[in-house]
Fold:
Amino acid sequence: MKHQLKEGLKASLGKLGYSFVKTDNKHQEEEDLAIYRKNYLPDSLEHKRFYNVGSGDFYHPYWSNLDYVSDWYKDVQKNVIHIDLMEKKPLPIASNSAEVFYTSHTIEHIKDDAVQVLFNEAYRALKKGGYFRVTTGPDADSDFDALMRNDEDWFFWNKWYEKPGSYEQNYYKPATSVPLEERWLHHVASQLAPNDKSPSAHKIDAKQIRDILNTKTKEEALNYFTSLCEFQSDRPGNHVSWWNRTKISSYLEKAGFSQVYVSGYGQSYCPILRNTKFFDNTHPQISVYVEARK
Structure:
């Protein structure tokens, strides 16, 4: 019966113009690699001159992974070159040698000055014409708007931390059990949220958050909250900075990029970055995408 229903649905959708093609993973992988071979020289492929900064569990045979190696991420990191972006040191990459840089959901975990150094380094290391794609979340504008309209469903990830055994490492009590203001603050400046176990001298409750939002502009409030955060090496997953399209673009321009533009999910100008199996696949519904070309 279930099979018949599924086939009936396919037939109905087929009449509307939808097609159903069996996927061949091996064929898809070969198509992906062919795009690299079409657009880049063998030397760049052999030496993996494509860099994923904050790579987590990412793996691609032509890419080099750079990430902060720690117990926090030990269960997911693969083939990683250790870097500590908060040290604000040059990346271990020669100038004018990289084809592509990509960073996803990394810059919100480090302070603004460290992000500027990362962007500067990406510009230095890229070849002329090379691409740098930045994706991060939350998009501070969308996140703030969700709080203003009391859209509890926007903060969907909190539901992952509401059952016993799911939240105790990071929270004192279920993530969905605290006021929406505090859930929002946790996404902006994690250690300031009263329910977060990260130490801080500046825990701010829901009433205080509203008072601050009522007396400051959005940007002033965001800057105020993140100014009270510090990078905690034993909790690198905390959010300590905020980002939207405008702020990311301004930092890229300051780094030297003259071609900076807002992008979207899977919509890169760079052919190899359009494969959403590898890129743009972290929380796309709350993310912001900005790209630059040297």
Remarks:
- Residues 25-137+247-293 form a domain with the Rossmann fold fold (CATH 3.40.50.150).
